[in-house]
Amino acid sequence: MGQRSLIYSFVARGTVILAEYTEFTGNFTSVASQCLQKLPATNNKFIYNCDGHTFNYLVDDGFSTLLTSDLFDFLVMIHDLVLFIICTFARLVCFNVFRKF
């Protein structure tokens, strides 16, 4: 069994990429960004194939998570983690945790 690798990933809000990661060179950023512009806003999973790579998108509550890798389940895990972090931060802001004493 060969080693599986994360090729490219990002998290976006709407059509704005908030964070991205890759250790490879290529046109991943431009292809992924072009596909992001065409994604419907509905909560769903989308798969696009381009230049021999599969771009797996998960759209949920306005956030889009992309994963170009061998494992789609990894995308779901990353998406859930990002939503957990965002929701936790929002709760901290709502409870005014960051106010000055």
Explain the layout of strands and helices.
Elements: E1 6-13, E2 16-22, H1 28-38, E3 44-50, E4 53-60, E5 63-69, H2 72-94
Antiparallel strand pairs: 1-2, 1-5, 3-4, 4-5
Task: Please sum up the structure shown.
By secondary structure, the chain is α+β, with helices and mostly antiparallel strands. 34% of the residues lie in helices and 37% in strands.
What kind of oligomer do you see?
single chain
Question: Strand portion, in percent?
Answer: 35-45%
Look up the CATH topology: Beta-Lactamase
The largest sheet, given as strand count, sense and whether it forms a barrel, is: 5 strands, antiparallel
Q: Kindly, what is the distance between the CA atoms of the first and last residues, rounded to a whole number of angstroms?
A: 55 Å
What is the count of β-strands? 5
Uncertain segments are none
Describe what you observe in this structure:
This protein has a single domain, classed as 2-Layer Sandwich (Beta-Lactamase), CATH 3.30.450. The protein has helices at 28-38, 72-94, and strands at residues 6-13, 16-22, 44-50, 53-60, 63-69. The chain is of the alpha+beta class and 101 residues long. Strands 2-1-5-4-3 form a five-stranded antiparallel sheet, with helices on both faces. The protein is built from two helices and five strands; from the N terminus they run ββαβββα. Keywords: Membrane, Transmembrane, Transmembrane helix. Residues 10-70 form the Longin domain. Its main location: membrane.
